[in-house]
Amino acid sequence: MKKIIVTIDGFSSCGKSTLAKALAREMNYVFIDSGAMYRAITLYFLRNHVNWNSKAEVIKALDNITLCFQYNAETDGCEIFLNDENVEWLIRDMLVAENVSEVAAVKEVREFAVAEQRKMGKLKGIVMDGRDIGTTVFPKAELKIFLTADPAVRVERRFKELYIKNPNITIDEVKSNLEMRDYIDSNREFSPLRQAEDAIVLNNSKLTHQEQLKFALRLVKEKLEAVTV
Length: 229
Ligand code: DC
Known about the structure:
Blueprint: E1 5-10, H1 16-27, E2 30-33, H2 34-47, H3 55-63, E3 67-72, E4 77-82, E5 85-86, H4 94-104, H5 107-120, E6 126-130, H6 133-137, E7 143-148, H7 151-165, H8 171-187, E8 200-203, H9 209-226
This protein binds 2'-deoxycytidine-5'-monophosphate (DC).
């Protein structure tokens, strides 16, 4: 059966993972949340007091990191394991969120993560979301979606997510964290967030999950019809 690679890139809290997960389920593809990999690396660095401004420390630390995803039938999601520990919940912490953009901007960290991501896509049949998936990780992916949403909608979505874990969080904190991450993600030297030239832009501010899924499935169908091998 023909299989393709689908990439979904965009800023934080645009709903990339929600769409990627639903699309992967519908197509029976593997879903990979590449942001979770950068978050897990950040968690490791924070726990082990790794100075990510030191190339030597970063290289040594990356040598001790193994990342993998495992499907959890209870949550119906792929969860990330850092050296055999399920850290899916821990990596959503605010402390990780505050530092992950800096860690993800480190050249060696990116090389490590991109190499792992490419291995995961070897057999195709994958939906991966992130920032540089359509530009750097899989520049030849058959379908590239660039997801956007209005800033106020993104802040609201992110706030709702974080509030469940931390009812003391304020809208302002969430807003400044998102703005900071947007800035670092789009201005970093290596593999900055940008839209691939051949990506299809989808602004989902006013769309339901179901509408987005329908739109994406139509694109997949078109791409599959066009694929010859
Ligand atoms: O999607 P997310 O918010 O979980 O991503 C966490 C951080 O990782 C975010 O600041 C950007 C970075 N990231 C990246 O640089 N490249 C990716 N492919 C995915 C995420």
